[in-house]
Amino acid sequence: MSEPRQPLPDTVVQGRTGGTNLVRVGVQNRALVLDLVRRRGPFARAELMRATGLSAQTVSNIAAGLVGSGLVREVPGGGRQLEVVAGSRSAIGVHLDPAHLVVVRTDLTGAVLAVEHVDLDATDDPVRTLDTMAAAVHRVRGGARPRVPLPAGIGLAVPGSIAPDGVRMGTPAQLPAWWSLPVTDELAARTGLPVRLEKDGVASALGEVWSAAGADDLVSVFLGHGISAATVAAGEVVRGATGNAGEFGGMPVEAHGRWTEVWEACQPLQQVRRAIAAGLLPTGIPLDRASDVRHAFERLCATPSAAPLVAEAGAALGSALAHVVELLDVPRVVIGGSAALAGGDGFIAAVRERLAVRLPHGPFPTVAATAFGEASVARGAACAVLQADLAVPAPVGRGTGVGTGRRPGGPVHVRSIAHPW
Hints:
Layout lengths: L10 H4 L11 H15 L4 H8 L3 H13 L3 E3 L7 E3 L5 E8 L2 E8 L4 E8 L6 H17 L11 E5 L24 H9 L3 E5 H10 L8 E6 L3 E7 L2 E2 L14 E4 L2 E4 H5 L1 H10 L12 H12 L5 H22 L3 E5 L1 H21 L7 E4 L6 H16 L30
Parallel strand pairs: 3-6, 6-7, 8-13, 13-14
Antiparallel strand pairs: 1-2, 3-4, 4-5, 8-9, 9-10, 11-12
Helix pairs in contact: 2-4, 3-4, 5-6, 7-13, 9-10, 10-12, 11-12
């Protein structure tokens, strides 16, 4: 027998999950009911009425439509409870990092069905990288479970800014060869699938809340070869007016004996340079190749004598997060990305300890590494496709900006910091 369900908080009705019976927002109500069943189900119809504020007739009509479309089914012997059909939809997520490519295929719940990891140097040759990306997409399309439908599209998560049209990359500091490149069109031409563009930090945050019942308010930090942070408020990822929310790297912190920006205190390249200067790593590491820096940084994090250097970076991140936590009053911080994962428990502990020092009287959030490993951003990008496919009556990611939080024609946020690559 399943455990009794905990009552849903009042914010489920009063916040973004509150519904309305107006016909003109039928799509919103349908998405609302599906979201609740997917994240918190199984649900009885009476429970859905209480959770959404919708009438019995509206819930009944929406449930019938969802069952008819194959997205939801009645639980056998479950007293007409509804549960999501995980295999009714699938999507592909791609995470482009300067030194690494991750490609996943997920079902409707966000479960990863197939995954590809590819080491690369994406800094100078977009054409070759896009060809590699398309080949990996082809492999995960064929490597998923049987009877899973064709992917609804591809979510492409990239570092740095993106253009307001949702088609082109902006001016990511570490990928100058990609500036203003229409990556959605390029990848769509190679794969035959529509492509949706997201920032890596936004994708990581969406992945954290897509199938989690209690992840309504949090900050998701991505620390790879760059750094960003995204906010989730009442279950919604805050993308900002142009889709470029999350530029977190310029936050000033005191680290490594001086005041600096948090990106400089944590970024793998800068940490490898410090380690070489301190004799923790040998000289001669080619610092102009992102993949070589990645491997050197992983070796550094695995070196016991380098623990203080890794912890200092974690403490710097904790100092920066203290301002974010106080500003937003969030109860949870999730940290992901290759650099954070390489830092391991010691890095996360240093973040937590610095937050405790900076916030002695609260609010003090839980701090943990993502449960989805290095696939977290790619998985979140796939979830962005599913979200758009299910909630927005328009093609996925063809530059319309629909449902993305982007304002067509708005300014692109350009980072002023300089990276060697």
